[in-house]
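Researcher: Sequence of Aminotransferase class III-fold pyridoxal phosphate-dependent enzyme follows. Predict its structure.
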Amino acid sequence: MPTTVAPIPNRSPEDIIALRRQHLNPTLSMSYKQPLKMLRGAGAYLYDQDGNAYLDMVNNVCHVGHCHPAVVAAGQTQMAQLNTNTRYLHDNIVEYAKRLSATFPSELSVVFLTNSGTEANDLALRIAKTYTQANDIIVVDHAYHGNSPTMIELSPYKFDGKGGRGRPAHIQVAEIPDDYRGRFRKDDPEAGAHYAEDLQRAITAIHARGEKPAAFYCESVLGCGGQVVLPKGYLPAAYAHARAAGAVCIADEVQVGFGRAGDYFWAFEAQRVVPDIVTMGKPIGNGHPMGAVVTRPEIAQAFITGMEYFNTFAGNPVSCAIGLAVLDVIQQEHLQAHAKQVGDFLLQGLNDLKQRYDLIGDVRGIGLFIGVELVKDRNSLEPATTEANTVIEFLKAHRILLSTDGPYDNVLKLKPPMVFSLANAKEFLLRLNQALSSVT
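Model: Prediction complete. Tokens:
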């Protein structure tokens, strides 16, 4: 007799919460004061157990839209044919490596595949240490690069947060280049270069330990730091400091890559630099677990030490079929240009709201990666953390899903699926206006 798959019970949210508390990781949080039970997704929307549609403005994982039919079909078709490891020859993996590397500057041409952004950043660390034969790392304050033990050590967002053990000795933390509330502000045309000078302090501290820097990690737009767009000239100057000390420069594009930046396919391009290593995750597989590292040939060659990098699942035919479908959708649906158009519209609308509400201290972003920082006072910049979370709950009540970020949890972070439309943007701006009116 054919095998039958047991049906999953349709439980109430309360029962699910009780079972989570009984059986799941106890550190796993839930969104909102009253968590939502979602049953399906389509495009820019999630649908709850009662069929209510929620506009998703925070899920940059489902990059080309929830359950995009082309991506789903690619995975289903390949899963029905073959899924195995990369020690067998298969067209999908080489086609994907070819297509992915073609989106980068020509200097970046060698692809390593992983299962997540965390794995990608972890592998980038191994590669950098092998190439430089050095150990110490420079990161940017409040950065988050992943959840593995080595990435927790590289993430001030974690090691300086609740439950963290503080900065490890081999990690140096560079000042966050925040030109809204940092030392150097938007009115300083050299703010980027000034912030980059702090890398020299970090390098000096590494040398004082008798060590050398292996790598400088930096997100191309800072996510957990508060959706901070790097000041002009920051990466060119920071990379120059790092490379002069022998370090390689790693661009973390896990949140902001694949056309989200609008004017650029990769957000590092906005700074007119070419990194030595780029890491990817989240949107690469539209929700399918996938990640990648792209680097220069000479760096990849130095990784040949006799110890093979083999990953059972990374680069399997199903993952690569899904990754290829994502690239096809981005291209054929012109989603990079769409991110530019809708992102510019959102930024204009948010700046208009800023003129009306003193609660909005700063609006910043690039493409469909935008931050709105709320403050109680525009002079003191006192964070409006309570108000930000009140806005989030107001929007949730009106079926718009958003979240907060930043060191003070006062930045509304906008990073919706790339199919987020002008009509969606207008709806959001209308509801945000109502939310701001209700809390001021």
